[in-house]
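Holo model, magnesium ion. Inputs:
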Amino acid sequence: MDTAVIIVAAGRGSRMGGEVPKQWQSLRGKPVLAHTLAAFAGFPVVLVIHPDDRARADTLAAGVTLVEGGATRDASVLAGLQALAGTGVTRVLIHDGARPLVSSRLVERLIAALDTHDGAAPALPVTDALWRGDAGLVTGTQDRSGLYRAQTPQAFRFDAILAAHLAHPGGAADDVEVARAAGLDVLIVEGEESNIKLTYPGDFARAEASLRGDAMDVRLGNGYDVHAFCDGDHVWLCGVKVPHRRGLLGHSDADVGMHALTDAIYGALALGDIGRHFPPSDPQWKGAASHIFLAHAIGLADAQGYRLANCDVTLVCEQPKIGPHAAAMQTALARIMAVEVGRVSVKATTSERLGFTGREEGIAAIATATLVRG
Ligand code: MG
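Output:
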């Protein structure tokens, strides 16, 4: 590996407030810096810290080289560069500790750009109008063409940026300024809106939301059910009463489609099946309307933070014909689960007169449900 990373985390972050510097504050249960370090997993990392943070830094991932920073940002970067001198590193990425959301794609693009340039840094064009102001009043406007919002990591050929820092008088806003002062060419690489620098308290909420998106959890479950025909003049299927010359035999209302769907949701949650939650041995569920079961399953999903992304129910029978009722069934299921009807599919097939469904001894149903969290 000839590419190393310097993470600058020696600042005190006065704009954020709070007892602890922002790079050490908790973001989804871990210090911001733990997220930042995770973004560079696999690279050798030099972490430049404030001397007061030594104890905190010792709790972070092993294998990170700790270096104490200086009074200014460029002094801290120089300390990091000097720690890498003589190690054989040829490329270096210099990154703000308070940007925990940088993507590996951006890192790869920056490293690749060093094949053709001394330096490469991410930035986004300024799209808002720019004003000058004084004492709360607008005093002028500023042409935004050609202006960029700079981000990190900023990537450089190692020897060139070390020499540039050693020659710089200090006071630079970032390492691109240092590089340019030494005559290095720096390529602008398209940055990422999500690569925010945590500066104000509200930035933590944005970062949390972004990390939740990364951690999206998708659960798939299936369900299968069969009920036999018996005497009767209607069947309940997916919450709709369908006239028929037979009924369906069952402990509850025998809504075979809704039972399959309910089991699919329990399955996605790895929480068993209807029989576990509503034992047939318990007389209170005799003749129960199946929407109680379905509402219970979706309630368990909701309690765990999952929502139904979609479900698909297939009824297998020769008779009754499902097509004329399918839309009403989708509406009924969607209402019970409190989701948009477009997330609910009900369809049917025959079994070509084969087997028990083909002989019209009963109806089978299969169902799939997808739950998502995050
Ligand atoms: Mg059943």
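The chain has a mean pLDDT of 93. Residues 201-214 form the longest helix (14 residues).
Archived with the compound record.
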